[in-house]
Amino acid sequence: METDVIAIIRPQCSPIAHIISYVANELQVPLMSFASDATLSSIQFPFFVRTMPSDLYQMAAVAAVIDYYQWKIVTAIYVDDDYGRNGIAALDDELTARRCKISFKIGFRSNAKKSDLLNLLVTVSNMESRVIILHTGSEPGLKLLSLANGLKMMGNSYVWIATDWLFAYLDANSSVSAETINAMQGVLTIRPHTPKSKVKSNLVSKWSSLSKKYYHSDLRTSAYGFYVYDSVWTVARALDAFFEDGGRISFTNDSRLRDETRGTLHLEAMSVFDMGNKLLNKIRNVNFTGVSGQVQFNAQFELIHPAYDIISIIGNGMR
Questions:
Q1: Where does this chain mainly localize (predicted)?
Q2: Could you tell me whether strands 73-79 and 131-135 are parallel, antiparallel, or unpaired per DSSP bridges?
Q3: Long-range contacts of 57-61 (CB under 8 A, 24+ apart)
Q4: All domains in the chain, ordered by first residue
Q5: What is the pLDDT of residues 271-312, one digit of tens each?
Q6: How many angstroms separate the CA atoms of 204 and 220, rounded?
Q7: Of 21, 121, 293, 307, which has the fewest CB atoms closer than 10 Å, so is most exposed?
């Protein structure tokens, strides 16, 4: 931020996104973020632009599945951080709107020990609801599914619905062990819908050939990768429109930014982007078809028309 920044692309991690949003607001720099945390919004952070669907839409999709099968109560397991707590709060609201509810919520630390996770699962097995929503990251989520499988909690008497962390793991890994796949048989998950297109297939093909050439392996991408790719092009298109409309790059030092502790932050070196609002408006008006689908924002800087694929883990893959 000391080098005169006019736009930021990232982060995905919700706690970091909250911190950077304050900086982006102060310096009037558009922040193109992949953080799905529904509590991050342009109402609080005017320069925050979400370039993938928020958890409000993801949890609406999960709630729609639950409502479709007429399950009235569910159990929620989540990682106890901003991402997990805020996601489950959004799910609670969506279920309430459909006259369903979470009868039991249980959180755990991301670095929880195996014994803690086993105790958690034993507690869940004694609950009334056998419909379980799993909202975590990939590492603890896979560990929980493996332990649940060992406790015979993956049978016909249980329903497991994993949020989008599971699709991201499966899409990004070309080879998943048979043991891992066996531990998640019958699990439902959801994936942001990215329609088939020539530009999308061309990107996947090019990405595959480049990864084999430079990394000697097939580094796969997921829907997240498509949103990242479109985020870069969104800024590029907005900059074109910005310059065509007489925009210029200039900065002003903010006298309020001072590091009183004389540390290493060098706050006094950071500058405000003079035409940040103008670039933000150009981003708001972007409208094109990208690899993730239609790229267009509503008044709250959220993508319009988000949709999800419902995926079941069966056999060696996804259906």
A1: membrane
A2: parallel
A3: 57/306, 57/308, 58/87, 58/90, 58/163, 58/164, 58/190, 58/308, 59/87, 59/90, 59/91, 59/93, 59/94, 59/163, 60/94, 61/190, 61/308, 61/310
A4: 8-52+229-292 (no CATH), 55-194+307-318 (3.40.50.2300)
A5: 899 999 999 999 999 999 999 999 999 998 999 988 999 999
A6: 8
A7: 307
Take residue 204 and report the two structure tokens written for it. Answer: 């996947």
CB 51 within 8 A of CB 78: no
DSSP string, 2-36: TT--S-EE---SHHHHHHHHHHHHHHT--EEE---
Half-sphere exposure in the Cβ direction for 225 (13 Å, CA): 14
For 307, phi and psi rounded to 5 degrees? Answer: -145, 165
pLDDT > 90? residue 118: yes
Closest Cα partner for 10 from 218, 171, 29, 28?
Answer: 29
d(C-alpha 293, C-alpha 177), whole Å: 31
- Closest Cα partner for 165 from 110, 103, 217? 110
Q: Give yes or no for a contact between 75 and 144, defined as CB atoms under 8 angstroms apart.
A: no
pTM of this structure: 0.87
* Three-class SS state of 76: strand
| Residue 82's pLDDT band (cuts 50, 70, 90) | confident
Closest residue by Cα to residue 192 from 41, 53, 83: 53
Sorted by sequence, the CB contacts under 8 Å of residue 234 that are 6+ apart come out as: 32, 51, 283, 286, 290, 295
Least reliable range by pLDDT among 37-46, 189-198, 273-282: 37-46
> What would you report as the CA-atom Rg of the chain, rounded to the nearest whole angstrom?
22
